Amino acid sequence: MIKKGSCFVICCMIFLLASCGLKKEALSFNALLEAADLYITTGDGGSASKVLKSARDSAQSPLQFLGIYKRQIKIGDTKEAEKTLKAGIRDHSENTELKAVYSWFLYQYDSLSQAKSQAKKLAGTEFASLLSLFQLEEAGGKSSVDYLSEDFASVYASAYLSTQNDKWLQNAAVVCAATGNFQQALEYGQGANLSDPLFWAYAAYDGKKYSQALDYLSLLGTARSTEYLLLASDIHTILGDVDRGRRVREALIAQGETELPAQLYLNGAKDARNSNDLVQESVALNRLLELYPDNEEGLGALMEMALQVQKVPQENNLAKALRETKLRSAGMIAYDMLPKTTPAQVLDLLEASHQRTNSAYTAALSYTYRVRPDVNPNMTKEEKEAALWLLLEAYSGGTAANSEKLVEALVPALISLGYQDEARRVFDASLISRFETADYKELQNKFSVKECECAAYFSVVGAGGVVDIELALQLFESLLADQSLRYPKLASTNSYEVEIPVLINLGELYAGSRKYDEAWDVYTQAAGLAATSKEKADILYRLAWLQYQTGFTEAAKLSLESCLKYNPYHQDAKIMQIRAPGTK
To answer: How far apart (Å, rounded) are the C-alpha atoms in residues 367 and 382?
Structure first.
């Protein structure tokens, strides 16, 4: 019988024996590796290979299998190296490091397809980028690869998992953005250690996630580059903080940098115009044309400014008398600060630009302003017609390459001169040269704003073609819908402001189609946009007539009163007051 004390001693002996066995086993494995290393050092690869095979039989951990594999690769024994990796994976099926090394082995010594198949087992692990590498390698071997294909989004995202380089996430976001999936694109920027917040701000901006774009910009702290400020000014404007957007643009223009986009100066000029500040408008436009002398929008804006300056009343006799003294009133100082640019000078700039660029649109712009009575009051109808035919001849009747803007400008000119049929012929020929069809219904989603206006007009009047009132309504309504702010590119916050003739035509069509409520709304909107008293009076007269015809006599009376307030000599309004009971 064994005593209790003896049992304890025996247990201790068993434990010690087991411990000795483990140490001996580990010692045996390490001794085998040391022997293999000695053979490798002396160049005896055959003996090293035999020892490593023996070591593989006693390997217990993934690290030991990898130690054997490394030495077998060193002596070029790739066949046994693969067996070692397979044995390690068999014994440790959950170990991702062994699987990753095996994937790389297959890539180097076997085939890309086998490596790719093995790497798929690493999805979601720290070695997921191996699959991405193999997929990109496979794509690179093909004659034509679309790296912006949706299939590559997950490839780039997986590459980030192990590299932690968020440039891969940017690649994934670009792929999603290219297909219009901005929501998914922005999800790639969540929770990552972002090295380039400005990139993600652009992505959010393009996806119309403006508040999120500002959040990304805030990550930049005080590192406010020109790009940062440009983007911020647009976002503030879009979100309704117009003053803040304007202040940022003013600061950028004041810096005098040469790399700012032309649209920034146009927006700055627009800000000044809205504030009735001709001086700042002149500063912005002159800076724009100093940097971009052939910018067509800038040349047009400068002409509009020159025409506005031309409307400023001349100084009265008192001011002229004061100039003979040393006295200067605030009004005189403001008058002296007015821009000195004249319409004639802008015409010279347009001509010089046309000489440099041979731009069809610049030629059309020059013609459009040259024939205006407030620019050239003595030009006869015959002279206008002759200049117009020469222009159309120079650009193949509007069908020459890149002449669509010329058509947009010259078709209204032809209509104003009474050549409606010719205007439609030019317009339709331009469409056919670009789209191989002049079917307005088919092209309505491809039209520019001006083209849409022209197509709607021709659909109403026919002008040598078919009258289609229903299509005209659709086209005019689409123009009205386009009045909302649209931001197609950075620093381009100019919205399409629907023109009053479009609203009047739409009102007439609504009234003719018995859509009286819609006509009433459109006329009211047009009256609110009208810039001159005469224009307001004409629109209010149309509104009064509509109201009277639909039984709203009291409303018609008020509209007529407003009409005559803006233009006391409006003959149609006076006649209506006499002939329409209850309107006086």
So the answer is: 14
**With contact defined as beta carbons under 8 Å apart, do 369 and 326 qualify?**
no
Residue 167 has pLDDT above 50, yes or no: yes
Map residue 358 onto helix, strand or coil: coil
pLDDT at 258 exceeding the cut of 60: yes
- Whole-number Å distance between alpha carbons of 339 and 349: 16
For residues 192, 193, 199, 202, the Cα torsion angle rounded to the nearest 10 degrees is: 50
What is the pLDDT averaged over residues 116-145? 63
pLDDT-derived band of residue 293, with 50, 70 and 90 as boundaries? very high
Q: If you count DSSP H runs as helices and E runs as strands, how many of each does the chain have, helices first?
A: 32, 0
Q: How far apart are CA 7 and CA 272, in angstroms?
A: 101
Angstrom distances, CA of residue 111 to CA of 221, 270, 581: 49, 63, 94
- State the Cα–Cα distance between residues 501 and 76, nearest whole angstrom: 84
Contacts of residues 66-74 at CB distance under 8 Å and 24 or more positions apart, as own/partner, are 66/97, 66/98, 66/101, 67/33, 68/33, 69/101, 71/33, 71/36, 71/37, 71/40, 74/40
Closest CA to 148 of 183, 115, 174: 174
> d(Cα 163, Cα 486) in Å, to the nearest integer?
39
Cα torsion angle, 358, 361, 362, 366, sign: positive
To 10 degrees, the CA torsion angle through 41, 44, 46, 49? -10
Residue of 408, 383, 382, 377 whose CA lies nearest to 395: 408
Half-sphere exposure of 98 (CA within 13 A, CB side): 24
pLDDT in tens, 400-426: 666 777 787 888 888 888 888 888 888
The tokens for 551 are 């039984």
Residues 461, 2: Cα–Cα separation, whole Å: 121
Checking if the pLDDT of 347 tops 90, the result is: yes
pLDDT tens by residue, 77-114: 888 888 888 898 888 888 888 887 887 787 777 777 77
Asked whether 295 and 289 are in contact (CB, 8 A), the reply is: yes
